[in-house]
Design the sequence.
């Protein structure tokens, strides 16, 4: 009986001890879950995923960069040779396609009548714009479509009188001072009108009148038109 009582007391003592042991073990098993922090934060561990697309900033900026480069390549004016922009060829590089051909500035060639079969060659030499001072009776109307077919811009400023008037000079100035037209080939029949236009344009640009006259002579102005040019400039007659 005493032995049985001791056994019961021992069992009763062990049960709460076991319960305490189990209760003590429970918190450790509950706390075991946060021991692995990777599970809930696994997704944001790789920050590259959402940022991958904007990682290449060149795509949207590529076109403007090229546009700026092209713009920078344009010369500032008809005498600017600091860029690699195509220039009008020198006389020794020009085939026999333009009567009395000369290079007035790095981006403006001058001369007389053009060889119609040589327009593709002129385009290949780099000319972008043809300015014709001839009249319709001299073939300026038929020249236009042929020039455009060769891939160049065609502009006709008819100068039938002895010298270009102020409006015609202003129109040529607008073209000559716009690098988007370069290189330009300015021509007429013999280069006489070309020389008159050049002299009046240069004088209007502020060049001393006598020097403008000399430049006009250089690119083809003859005495038959120089008198009218000098009169427009208020100079003494020949």
Sequence:
């Amino acid at each position: 009986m005493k032995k049985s009582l001791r056994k019961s007391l021992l069992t009763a003592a062990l049960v709460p001890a076991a319960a305490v042991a189990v209760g003590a073990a429970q918190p450790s098993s509950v706390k075991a879950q946060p021991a692995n922090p990777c599970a809930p934060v696994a997704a944001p561990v790789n920050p590259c995923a959402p940022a991958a697309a904007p990682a290449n900033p060149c795509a949207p900026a590529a076109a403007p960069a090229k546009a700026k480069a092209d713009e920078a390549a344009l010369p500032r004016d008809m005498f600017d040779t600091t860029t690699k922009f195509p220039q009008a060829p020198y006389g020794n590089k020009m085939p026999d396609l333009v009567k009395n051909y000369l290079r007035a500035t790095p981006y403006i060639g001058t001369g007389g009548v053009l060889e119609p079969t040589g327009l593709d060659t002129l385009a290949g030499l780099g000319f972008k714009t043809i300015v014709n001072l001839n009249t319709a009776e001299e073939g300026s109307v038929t020249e236009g479509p042929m020039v455009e077919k060769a891939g160049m811009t065609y502009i006709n400023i008819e100068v039938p009188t002895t010298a270009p008037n102020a409006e015609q000079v202003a129109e040529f100035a607008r073209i000559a001072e716009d690098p988007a037209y370069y290189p330009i080939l300015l021509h007429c029949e013999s280069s006489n009108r070309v020389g008159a236009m050049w002299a009046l344009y240069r004088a209007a640009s502020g060049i001393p009148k006598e020097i403008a006259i000399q430049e006009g002579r250089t690119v083809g102005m003859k005495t038959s038109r120089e008198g009218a040019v000098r009169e427009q400039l208020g100079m003494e007659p020949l």
About this structure: The mean pLDDT is 82.
